[in-house]
Design brief:
InterPro entries: DUF58, Ig-like_fold. The chain is of the alpha/beta class. Helix content is 36%, strand content 27%.
Length: 436
């Protein structure tokens, strides 16, 4: 307990004429006994803090950028009314800057034996698990001269999920998927297709699709139609090494890769494909495997919520070995990693053949939009040098991409806002070409 009303008492006594009271506590009590008695009674009538009962309820998860409400129920079991100020403390990243004081502090009055419910509105600015800190309560007496103060630990965890801003592209990608799936009349050929139905031949159709047995039983030429196979295996591999920590705009590259992975996971699970997730640098940081179609997206979102870049060089051999153990049959392996020359040439290229000989590999990388702006700069000497540096960076990424393409890898290189839809389009193109 803290006698936080002592300052108020001394201020009141300080208004007495000089020389009437001794500055020691003995003199104070002797000269102004009624005021001291009032303070003692005020302190005694303040409701005890440590006997209060506190419980939590409310939201346990929220998307980054949205608000979450956490309820705190305070029960006053004592025989005295509780007049108090309460502070519900959370980590600083649980609030928008400048809103913490207003959102975390509450005034409350609770009669004896009753309870009150308070709501703390959080608006986190970072992903991950946010743990509630202590609840501090300052209980006032009826005169407000002295207070009792104490803290309670009331545990609660709020998981802040990735924002998934690319979900706005999902309807258009699903419409294209429905076309590939045969709900709109289309004809596709390739190793990743399966028989759908028969129809009459139309000039221009691929003659390799003629069903001669069916044609012999009828008076018209019959054509087999095909649709992309379902139940293919998609493995999303996120590189969480040091290159993923580089900031592009206001966020790390890893955040843009996560957003692209979420859109592809949502699309592929709707297509009937099995989707797994692996996050790796020098060890496994997250693994989602064997989930049913309806559970894939929630599981991936939850796994990505606490994922952060690690300032270590990614072990390409370890990543490849782990990916091969996770993808035990022919799969589409989507590598979300950097397209920088050194990590690719020294790390990935020497072990890439282990992946491409059994699987279809698609590499997606986040490009820096600032380099695009630099490439267009003109007018001053400094701007010309910036444009030359941007052109050199473009040429290096292009050479690296060509090396990967020669190894049979499909490459997607796009800015953070364009990466997710570009990756989804690449997936759909592979399906349309029968490569899945």
């Amino acid at each position: 307990m803290a006698l936080t009303g002592r300052t108020a008492l001394l201020a009141a006594l300080g208004s007495l004429p000089v020389g009437i009271w001794d500055p020691s506590w003995t003199g104070i009590l002797a000269v102004n006994a009624p005021l001291a008695l009032a303070c003692a009674c005020d302190f005694a009538l303040a409701a005890p803090v440590r006997r209060l009962g506190l419980t939590r309820a409310g939201d346990t998860s929220v998307r980054l950028g949205e608000s979450a409400d956490v309820e705190l129920t305070v029960t006053n079991p004592s025989g005295r009314p509780l007049r108090a100020q309460l502070r519900d403390a959370w980590p600083p990243s649980s609030w928008q800057p400048g809103t913490e004081v207003e959102a975390s502090r509450h005034r409350l009055t609770i009669p004896p034996g009753e309870r009150r419910r308070l709501t703390t509105r959080l608006r986190p600015t970072r992903r991950g698990d946010h743990q509630a800190d202590r609840v501090t309560i300052r209980s006032y007496g009826p005169l407000g001269l002295l207070t009792r103060q104490g803290s309670h630990q009331v545990p609660w965890t709020l998981r802040v999920l990735p924002p998934f801003t690319s979900r706005k592209h999902l309807p258009s990608k699903l419409a294209r998927l429905r076309e590939l799936d045969g709900r709109t009349s289309v004809l596709t050929r390739g190793q990743g297709t399966e028989f759908d139905s028969l129809r009459d031949y139309v000039p221009g159709d691929d003659t390799r699709s003629i069903d001669w047995r069916a044609t012999a039983r009828q008076s018209t030429v019959a054509i087999r139609t095909w649709r992309p196979e379902r139940d293919r295996h998609i493995l999303l591999v996120l590189d969480t090494g040091r290159t993923s920590a580089g900031r592009v705009g206001d966020a790390p590259r890893l955040d843009a890769s996560m957003d692209a992975a979420l859109l592809l996971a949502a699309l592929a699970s709707r297509a009937g494909d099995r989707v797994d997730l692996l996050a790796y640098d020098r060890r496994v940081r997250a693994l989602v495997q064997g989930k049913a179609a309806g559970e894939v997206l929630p599981s991936v979102v939850s796994a990505l919520a606490t994922l952060e870049p690690e300032l270590v060089e990614t072990d390409a051999r370890g990543l490849t070995s782990t990916a091969l153990r996770t993808a035990t049959r022919s799969s589409l392996i989507v590598l979300l990693t950097s397209l920088d020359a050194a990590p690719i040439e020294e790390g990935l290229l020497p072990v890439l053949s282990r992946l491409t000989q059994r699987h279809t590999v698609l590499l997606a990388s986040v490009a820096d939009p600032h380099i695009e702006q630099m490439a267009k700069a003109r007018g001053t000497t400094e701007a010309v040098y910036d444009a030359a540096a941007a052109a050199q960076a473009h040429a290096e990424r292009h050479r690296t991409a060509e090396q990967l393409i020669r190894h049979g890898v499909t490459v997607v290189d796009a800015t953070p806002t364009d990466l997710a839809p570009a990756l989804a389009d690449a997936y759909l193109s592979l399906k349309a070409a029968g490569r899945l």
